[in-house]
Amino acid sequence: MPELPEVEVVRRGLERWVAHRSVTDAEVLHPRAVRRHLAGPDDFTQRLKGRHIGTPSRRGKYLWLPLEESNESVLAHLGMSGQLLVQPHEAPDEKHLRVRIRFADALGTELRFVDQRTFGGLSLHDNTPEGLPDVIAHISRDPLDPLFDEDAFHRALRRKRTTIKRALLDQSLISGVGNIYADEALWRARIHYERPTAGFTRPRTADLLTHIRDVMNEALAVGGTSFDSLYVNVNGESGYFDRSLDAYGREGLPCRRCGTPIRRRPWMNRSSYFCPKCQRAPRAAS
DNA sequence: ACCACTACCTGCATGC
DNA sequence: TGCATGCAGGTAGTGG
């Protein structure tokens, strides 16, 4: 379940192992993995040949490899189970290998996109004047971006007629937050996931953002969260933050603050984990 | 215009 | 043992 910290770990790996290499060949083993590339798999591979990779960038859960000497990028989204791996040529193909990219140098490694559930994918796009792939122009800056507009985020919360967890997962309001870090930040801020955003005060918004940034930075420091081993860095290694989770996946276990058993509630075809004592449900709307 | 819900996909755990 | 069901969940598109 790659969210911002996990994607950033991958971005850093690509910066170290893939940046400034030139592509000799790309191979699409499953067309669904490039479905966002509307011109099709053949166009994707043809246009990648001979191109030079720049410094990888990221916004929220999206990352992209700029192609030097042009205004295009290879956009990547890991979906729920996507992996970008730097592997030796001789490593056997992974069961769910979807795309392979080979390079011109003698380093002996290739870039592989592996994705069990194929919710993620790669695609090639023109950049906006800001250097962002055009198809993700609607994605908001993320809370670790120095240019994240905290005031605009607060005003958006006040304007919306929705609840806080929905808002946190709305990538056009704030990006990079998924189900795990939403539950973790709400637990830290002692806010129930169904609290309406319209009543948020400026201090409450600021406090929640501080907790979001804290939990993400702590996860980043230990290589991200690997809840079910599907998430790995470019070298195939798992992170350790799952050991530090306070709410997510802890149904029935004591809240680390007050000892009350953590509850799980079905929510939007997934789950919300929360402490029923620390995170009081809002009064039902009349 | 805004908000909420669902399809998409596969592997694993669980229940009968 | 084998089959069915539920669950994991980010995003874009649809329906209200």
Automatic annotation (TrEMBL):
<protein>
    <recommendedName>
        <fullName>Formamidopyrimidine-DNA glycosylase</fullName>
        <ecNumber>3.2.2.23</ecNumber>
        <ecNumber>4.2.99.18</ecNumber>
    </recommendedName>
</protein>
<dbReference type="GO" id="GO:0006284">
    <property type="term" value="P:base-excision repair"/>
</dbReference>
<dbReference type="InterPro" id="IPR012319">
    <property type="entry name" value="FPG_cat"/>
</dbReference>
<dbReference type="GO" id="GO:0003684">
    <property type="term" value="F:damaged DNA binding"/>
</dbReference>
<dbReference type="GO" id="GO:0003690">
    <property type="term" value="F:double-stranded DNA binding"/>
</dbReference>
<dbReference type="InterPro" id="IPR010979">
    <property type="entry name" value="Ribosomal_uS13-like_H2TH"/>
</dbReference>
<dbReference type="GO" id="GO:0034039">
    <property type="term" value="F:8-oxo-7,8-dihydroguanine DNA N-glycosylase activity"/>
</dbReference>
<dbReference type="InterPro" id="IPR015886">
    <property type="entry name" value="H2TH_FPG"/>
</dbReference>
<comment type="subunit">
    <text>Monomer.</text>
</comment>
<keyword id="KW-0511">Multifunctional enzyme</keyword>
<dbReference type="InterPro" id="IPR020629">
    <property type="entry name" value="FPG_Glyclase"/>
</dbReference>
<dbReference type="Pfam" id="PF06831">
    <property type="entry name" value="H2TH"/>
</dbReference>
<keyword id="KW-0378">Hydrolase</keyword>
<feature type="binding site">
    <location>
        <position position="160"/>
    </location>
    <ligand>
        <name>DNA</name>
    </ligand>
</feature>
<keyword id="KW-0326">Glycosidase</keyword>
<keyword id="KW-0227">DNA damage</keyword>
<dbReference type="GO" id="GO:0006979">
    <property type="term" value="P:response to oxidative stress"/>
</dbReference>
<dbReference type="GO" id="GO:0008270">
    <property type="term" value="F:zinc ion binding"/>
</dbReference>
<comment type="similarity">
    <text>Belongs to the FPG family.</text>
</comment>
<feature type="binding site">
    <location>
        <position position="117"/>
    </location>
    <ligand>
        <name>DNA</name>
    </ligand>
</feature>
<dbReference type="GO" id="GO:0140078">
    <property type="term" value="F:class I DNA-(apurinic or apyrimidinic site) endonuclease activity"/>
</dbReference>
<feature type="domain" description="FPG-type">
    <location>
        <begin position="246"/>
        <end position="280"/>
    </location>
</feature>
<dbReference type="InterPro" id="IPR015887">
    <property type="entry name" value="DNA_glyclase_Znf_dom_DNA_BS"/>
</dbReference>
<feature type="binding site">
    <location>
        <position position="96"/>
    </location>
    <ligand>
        <name>DNA</name>
    </ligand>
</feature>
<dbReference type="InterPro" id="IPR000214">
    <property type="entry name" value="Znf_DNA_glyclase/AP_lyase"/>
</dbReference>
<keyword id="KW-0863">Zinc-finger</keyword>
<comment type="function">
    <text>Involved in base excision repair of DNA damaged by oxidation or by mutagenic agents. Acts as DNA glycosylase that recognizes and removes damaged bases. Has a preference for oxidized purines, such as 7,8-dihydro-8-oxoguanine (8-oxoG). Has AP (apurinic/apyrimidinic) lyase activity and introduces nicks in the DNA strand. Cleaves the DNA backbone by beta-delta elimination to generate a single-strand break at the site of the removed base with both 3'- and 5'-phosphates.</text>
</comment>
<feature type="domain" description="Formamidopyrimidine-DNA glycosylase catalytic">
    <location>
        <begin position="2"/>
        <end position="120"/>
    </location>
</feature>
<keyword id="KW-0456">Lyase</keyword>
<feature type="active site" description="Schiff-base intermediate with DNA">
    <location>
        <position position="2"/>
    </location>
</feature>
<dbReference type="Pfam" id="PF01149">
    <property type="entry name" value="Fapy_DNA_glyco"/>
</dbReference>
<feature type="active site" description="Proton donor; for beta-elimination activity">
    <location>
        <position position="61"/>
    </location>
</feature>
<keyword id="KW-0479">Metal-binding</keyword>
<dbReference type="InterPro" id="IPR035937">
    <property type="entry name" value="FPG_N"/>
</dbReference>
<keyword id="KW-0862">Zinc</keyword>
<keyword id="KW-0238">DNA-binding</keyword>
<feature type="active site" description="Proton donor; for delta-elimination activity">
    <location>
        <position position="270"/>
    </location>
</feature>
<feature type="active site" description="Proton donor">
    <location>
        <position position="3"/>
    </location>
</feature>
<keyword id="KW-0234">DNA repair</keyword>
